Amino acid sequence: MDPRMLQSSPIIVIGMHRSGTRALAQILERLGIFMGADQQADSESITFMSINEGILHQCGGFWSEPMSAHFLLSQPEFVDTLAASVRATLAARLGDYVGRSGLLSGAGGAALPAFGWKDPRNTFTLPVWRRVFPNARVIHIVRHGVDVAASLARRHSAALRAAAGTSVPAALTVIEDHGLGVLSSRRGWTLPEALTMWEQYVEKARLETAELGDALEVRFEDLLADPWPVISSIAQWCGANLSDKDPKWIENLRADRAFAYRQDPALVEFATTAREVLVRYGYSP
Questions:
Q1: Total of domains in the chain
Q2: Which of 1, 67, 75, 167 has its CA 20 to 30 A from that of 155?
Q3: Does 70 fall in a domain?
């Protein structure tokens, strides 16, 4: 692999699923950060996502059951072993990520253009990526837990109905879904389960970013309510030039998506029961 890759400072997007990571990745791309030529519809690089899934599987985990990765990746020797494997895999697959972008072109000693990738799984695999890219920079996006839980539960329910014909299949059912991967756990099918997952992701993200010092956290609600000041702060943090405030950048950032749960009495009631957890992470019912 080009040694300039390993010496660079990629921007790694972390945050719970359904928290606005795609919107953030699209903003970074518009700021000139290369986010991959192999992106899926959700703006995730297939190369980095598949490597992340491999890391989680090596830890006996999955995106919806990530805690085994948290425990195992706290062991430096295990992280070293996985990082060596990741370097080899990334070197073999880098062409898919780079595509025809010309990211690696130019004189051998020239620094690479800014690049990065988005994947909520980064939240738990970050110890490995920090070992692969010691100069990596991290941006965390966080969203109200009830909005996340409601969105995740809806997505699970739709995928399960499509795959199994019911939203509550038998306990031992294993389902393969293009969007969700292999589901062998009911976690995330209900609001309380999804909120617990949100809690773990936010806790882990803040634990990791506290160690970095220079990481940036963005609240999805702030981005929706008043996009340009937030985008400006992201650009400044990235060292990017925000000279063109194209309205197309923010046309999909609908303010009504912030605290959307407040429009549903059942979700408002659920938020009240989850007050303690929400307050712990800076939100209120």
A1: 1
A2: 67
A3: yes
Query: If you search the block for the tokens 């090596």, which residue do you land on?
Result: 58
CATH of the domain at 17: 3.40.50.300
Across-strand partners of 116?
A: 11
Q: Which residues partner with 218 through β-bridges? A: 141
| Cα–Cα distance for residue pair 5/90, rounded to 1 Å | 10
Instruction: Specify the amino acid at residue 26.
Output: Q
The secondary structure of residue 137, as a DSSP letter, is E
Residue 108 has pLDDT above 80, yes or no: no
User: Which domain range does residue 231 map to?
Assistant: 3-145+192-258
What is the phi/psi pair of residue 103, to 5°? -55, -40
For the chain, the farthest-separated pair of C-alpha atoms sits apart, in whole angstroms, at 60
Q: Distance of CA 188 to CAs 7, 25, 227, 254, Å? A: 38, 24, 30, 25
Cβ pair 212, 147 in contact under 8 A = no
- 210-235: buried (b, 16+ CB within 10 Å) or exposed (e) per residue? eeeeebbbbbbbebbeebeebbeebb
* pLDDT of the residue at 96: 96
Q: Collect all residues with Cβ–Cβ distance below 8 Å to 165 and sequence separation of at least 6.
A: none
Task: Please report, rounded to a whole number, the percentage of residues in the chain having pLDDT higher than 70.
Answer: 88
β-bridge mates for residue 219, sequence order: 142
User: Any idea of the CA torsion for 120, 122, 125, 131, to the nearest 10 degrees?
Assistant: 180
Give residue 245's pLDDT. 83
Q: Are 119 and 139 in contact (CB under 8 A)?
A: no
pTM for the whole structure: 0.92
Q: Considering just the CA atoms, what is the radius of gyration of the chain in Å?
A: 19
